[in-house]
Amino acid sequence: MDPVTLLTIVVLAVFVGFEVVSKVTSTLHTPLMSGANAIHGIVLIGAIIVAGQTTDPWLLAVALLAVLLATVNLVGGFVVTDRMLQMFHGRRDVAAAAGRRRRKDAR
Amino acid sequence: MSILSFEWTALLYLAAAVCFILALKGLSSPRTARRGNLIGALGAVVAVITVFLSARLENIPAILLAIVAGSAVAAPIARRVQMTQMPQLVALFNGVGGGAAALVAVLELGHNIDPWVRVAIVFTMLIGAVSFAGSAVTVAKLQELISTRPLLFPGMRWVMSLVVAASLVACAFVVATGDVGWAIALLILGLAAGLLLVLPVGGADVPIVISLLNACTGLAVAASGVVLGNVLLVVAGTLVGASGTILTQAMAKAMGRGVSGILFGAFRGGSTAGSTVQSDRSVRSSGPEDVAVVLGYAQRVIIVPGYGLAVAQGQHTVAELAEALEERGVEVLFAIHPVAGRMPGHMNVLLAEASVPYESLKEMSEINPEFKNTDVALVVGANDVVNPAAKSAPGSPIYGMPILEVGDAAQVVFLKRSMRPGFAGIENELLHSPKTTLLFGDAKDSLTRVLGAVKTL
Fold it and tell me: Which of A44, B57, B184, B403 has the fewest Cβ atoms within 10 angstroms?
């Protein structure tokens, strides 16, 4: 790839990365870290390309290990983030409903 | 297969990259967080399908098998892990991602003779290996497989300098010769550097290191994208690297630490102050009935939950206790330290799981002025986040960390397992204060007994 184009992409991505998370509350630090962690699991694409180009069985074994590890990162990352957030939201609504019920009972 | 043209491939990768940006954006706000994460996952699915349809790939059955195996391992663990152990899992996933990036780079070494591409290769290998080994150490520390205190040995600074120097030499040789032997040496040196970097980090700082290593893995993935000429990897990796850096700074700020202080503080010495020996100074301990009276007749109680609560799985009991007190007309608030638990925001997740209304959870800056007007501060399984040593003892490893000012409350009740110091290994002066009462025992157990006693008041 043309190095200048590449540099352009990198610089713009850095600014986007800074910008999108600049105003996050500490409440969401953990899910955000976990979500970002899942996103870099996309190295799976690279592992697949490398595994798909090799013919040597030893190199293939290493490449498949990379595919395996990257999949663990990608799939596990998104699932665990979703679990965290599901708890956050679903239960919060439940709690709000329970709170309303309590207040109603008190009245 | 190459069903997709070059243009379509690039467009689909662009769509995936946009998904990732939207995912990070969504994750920054509580309302959109879950949807954001799902958009990210969608982007990943699009990207994986695209690579199978666009590149000319051999070994497709084996690759699919590895993907299925990886998913079969990761998804059930991610679904079943206890929320208290989630930080370890995130660290683990981060580490394997770094490892994958390093392996991809090694395998690409044979195809590339362009020295600039080789620079990207050595960068990916080194950072990926550091991230892999560093994450492994954080997992071991969080699981308490190894000591949570900073681990140092004499001459560690020299060993570290030597490893860094040797890594740079190996990098130079790999770039110049493309030799696989040097590449393997570089990987080993990277692993050693990762170990040496994280071993001296104290337990309380581990979450920040996880975030930092997360950003590192992002950069390694971006560099692997340069190696493979894949724009999606470049964009996604850079995004994670940049946002991870911001996040690391935000976390370090919440703890009143500088990132370099965390990484190199122990090397400079002085950060290992504090003692693990139990103090034999007197404390005032009491029974659950006394604690119930103190709580039940208070006007306002602030509960400070910490990691001990999470370990004991006491979050549901503490929620019940809060409810029982509120029925008696006591105002109950939860004071959440930004690093309560093992990660920033961890405690919010745990209490949300226990259906504690979101509005009762107060952040540190919001709650600290309130302690003055509070009858009882109930500290459940927390220690470091309320330790006044952070303000008064410049030699202490937590010095400078903002704390919850529970000492301002009229009375302080600690529910503790023992007099053992907290995760950071520093004694807490507050335990010996005349206004402090202690109730020893497992957090959930103590809460259950206090709850029972409150109900009979």
Answer: B184
**3-state class of B301 per DSSP?**
strand
The answer to whether position A25 is within a domain reads no
Q: Which two tokens stand for residue B375?
A: 């009858």
Q: How far is residue A96 from each of residues A103, B28, B114, B355, B366, measured CA to CA in Å?
A: 11, 22, 60, 8, 21
A100 contact B CB<8A: no
Encode pLDDT of A73-99 as tens digits. Answer: 999 999 999 988 877 654 445 445 445
B384 annotated active-site: yes
Does B73 sit within 8 Å of A31, measured CB to CB? Answer: no
* Strand partners of residue B413: B378, B437
Q: Does the predicted model carry a pTM greater than 0.90?
A: no
In a domain, A7, yes or no: no
* A13: in domain: no
Q: Name the active-site residue from B114, B280, B375, B384.
A: B384
Separation CA B431–CA B454 (nearest Å)? 24
Q: How far is C-alpha B35 from the chain's CA centre?
A: 22
Q: What is the ipTM metric for this complex?
A: 0.86
Nearest residue of B to residue A35, measured between CA atoms: B37
| Partner-chain contact B243 A84, CB within 8 Å | no
Q: Is residue A1 part of a domain?
A: no
**Selected residue of B13, B63, B82 to mutate for chain A interface (largest A Cβ count, 10 A):** B63
pLDDT tens digits for range B21-51: 999 999 888 788 899 999 999 999 999 999 9
Per-residue pLDDT tens digits for A6-46: 999 999 999 999 988 887 777 788 889 999 999 999 999 99
